[in-house]
From TrEMBL:
Organism per entry: Acidovorax cavernicola
Keywords on record: Oxidoreductase
Family: Belongs to the NAD(P)H dehydrogenase (quinone) family.
Domain Flavodoxin-like fold: 1-179
InterPro entries reported in the protein's UniProt record: Flavodoxin_fold, Flavoprotein-like_sf, NAD(P)H_dehydrogenase_qn
Record field: transmembrane: none
Signal peptide: none
GO cellular component: cytosol
Gene3D superfamilies given in the database record: 3.40.50.360
Pfam families on file: Flavodoxin_2 (PF02525)
Name used for this protein in its record: Flavodoxin family protein
C-alpha cells in the first residue's frame, strides 16, 4: 500500500522523532513509502492574504507553491501522521500543512449551495494511522471529548474511502512517563505498523 508518512516535531532528538524513525523502519520493508518531515524541510504553514483570497477561485496559486506535497497526498493510499498533541490538537505547523495542501480540487470540492457538504477528493485513501503523544492523562482527554482524535478520525476521515481503516496510537501523560512506558509504546508502534 502506497504510504505517506507526515512527521511534525521541531526537535530531531525528541521521543516523537524516534517514533517517526520507528514508523519508517516498520513500513519500508513492506510498502512503498514517501516521508515528509515538516520542520526538517522548513515547510511554511502560513496561509497568506493572497492565498486566502485565491483559495476558492484560484487554488492553483497555492497548489503550485506546495506541489510536491500535493503530489505525495494524491499518490498515497495510506496516511500516517506522527506528531505531538499540543493544546489538544496537532502542532500549528501540521494544521498549516492541512490548510495549505488539502486544497479545493485536491482534498475536496466545495459545496455548491447552502446546507450541502463538500465532496471528497480523497477516496483513494484506504487507511489512516495516527501516532501521537500528549501531556494530559487519558481520563481528562476523554472528559473533554478527545478533540485531537475527533479531528483526524471523524472530520478528516470523512474525506477518505468509505471503508477506510483507522489506527490510533497515543501515549498519554508524556510529562510523567517512564523509560519503560516509552520503550513499550515504541514497540507497540513498530509491531502495529509492521503488521499493516
Amino acid at each position: 500500500m502506497k504510504t505517506l508518512v507526515v512527521h511534525c516535531h521541531p526537535n530531531p532528538d525528541s521521543f516523537n522523532h524516534a517514533l517517526y524513525r520507528t514508523a519508517l523502519e516498520a513500513l519500508q520493508p513492506r510498502h512503498p513509502v514517501r516521508a515528509i518531515d515538516l520542520y526538517a524541510e522548513g515547510f511554511d504553514p502560513t496561509l497568506t492574504r493572497e492565498e486566502r483570497i485565491a483559495y476558492l477561485d484560484n487554488p492553483e496559486l497555492i497548489r503550485e507553491r506546495v506541489k510536491p506535497h500535493v503530489e505525495a497526498l494524491l499518490w498515497a493510499e495510506h496516511l500516517v501522521f506522527v506528531y505531538p498533541t499540543w493544546f489538544h490538537g496537532p502542532p500549528s505547523m501540521l494544521k498549516g500543512w492541512l490548510e495549505r495542501v488539502w486544497l479545493p480540487g485536491v482534498a475536496f470540492l466545495p459545496a455548491e449551495r447552502k446546507g450541502q457538504l463538500a465532496k471528497s477528493g480523497m477516496r483513494h485513501i484506504r487507511r489512516l494511522t495516527v501516532v501521537t503523544t500528549g501531556g494530559s492523562p487519558r481520563w481528562f482527554v476523554m472528559a473533554i471529548g478527545d478533540p485531537g482524535r475527533r479531528l483526524f478520525t471523524r472530520a478528516l476521515r470523512a474525506l477518505f474511502a468509505w471503508r477506510c481503516k483507522v489506527t490510533w496510537l497515543q501515549l498519554h501523560d508524556m510529562n510523567a512517563v517512564t523509560d519503560h512506558d516509552r520503550t513499550h509504546f515504541i514497540a507497540r508502534v513498530s509491531r502495529t505498523l509492521h503488521n499493516i
